[in-house]
Specification:
mainly alpha; 2 domains; Serine Threonine Protein Phosphatase 5, Tetratricopeptide repeat
């Protein structure tokens, strides 16, 4: 990722921690290390996009039960957006576009429906660039993004901007078929199904991913383990019981 040894050593250290576990602690450590790496290699578009990713992950793990919670989350999402924008100014990449869009959407997660609707054109431009220039990026990242928008954004906004949730769901299914070892697509699929009122299908999807081996995809082992922990969390939220009880 970096041609500068000092920066690459910091990146390797950040990734080693995340490979063991994805948690607030390891993400904070990764952010601190990658911020130092950026100082050593400030015009590295890939590194900046990676840091934008970590900022988003950090914000998304924080609670969202009050206006104060949303304000605290927004601090990280804004950092992520600023960093992704900086990355794109150096070079256009799929990662830069993806984390610019994801952080932009998240900055506005608690905004009015009109504000949320107003950013859809920018979000679509980012996703379109990825689909045109790096189709299949991160095992179906644009499909996950679209499905998550369908889940998080009020239905009235989805209708206002002409989004088709069913089309987004089909794209998720295609992503799973293309790379069935990447667990995040399953948890996004489960959230989509639950949001559509299909609780049994959502639970069946969670059950499927919880029975899978996260080590089957060594490069994404940490992500897979993290998604299994999220699957257990969703199961508890949706059933009121610990997995596998329904």
């Amino acid at each position: 990722m970096s041609q500068k040894p000092e920066a690459q050593a910091l990146i390797d250290q950040a990734w080693a921690g995340l490979d063991e576990e994805m948690s607030l602690k390891t993400i904070d450590q990764a952010i601190a290390l990658e911020e130092k790496a950026v100082k050593a290699d400030p015009n590295n578009a890939d590194l900046l996009a990676e840091l934008a990713d970590e900022y988003w992950q950090r914000g998304d793990l924080m609670p969202k039960n009050s206006d104060q919670d949303y304000a605290a989350r927004k601090v990280y999402f804004q950092k992520g957006l600023d960093t992704a924008t900086r990355s794109l100014a150096v070079k256009e990449t799929a990662a830069g576009h993806y984390w610019a869009a994801t952080n932009l959407a998240s900055v506005n997660e608690n905004a009015s429906i009109f504000k949320q609707a107003s950013i859809f054109l920018d979000l679509s431009k980012h996703m379109d660039w990825i689909d045109q220039n790096a189709k299949g990026y991160k095992y179906g990242a644009t499909a996950r993004f679209s499905s998550e928008v369908s889940v998080r954004v009020p239905g009235v906004v989805i209708k206002m901007v002409g989004q088709d949730p069913n089309e987004n769901y089909e794209r998720l299914k295609d992503a799973i078929a293309t790379e069935p070892r990447f667990f995040q697509n399953y948890t996004y699929q489960a959230k989509f199904l639950y949001h559509q009122g299909k609780k049994d299908e959502a639970l069946n999807t969670l059950d499927q991913v919880l029975k899978m081996d996260p080590n089957a995809f060594p490069e994404e082992r940490a992500y897979n383990k993290f998604e299994q922990s999220r699957a257990r969390q969703y199961w508890k939220e949706w059933t009121g019981k610990d997995y596998p009880q329904r």
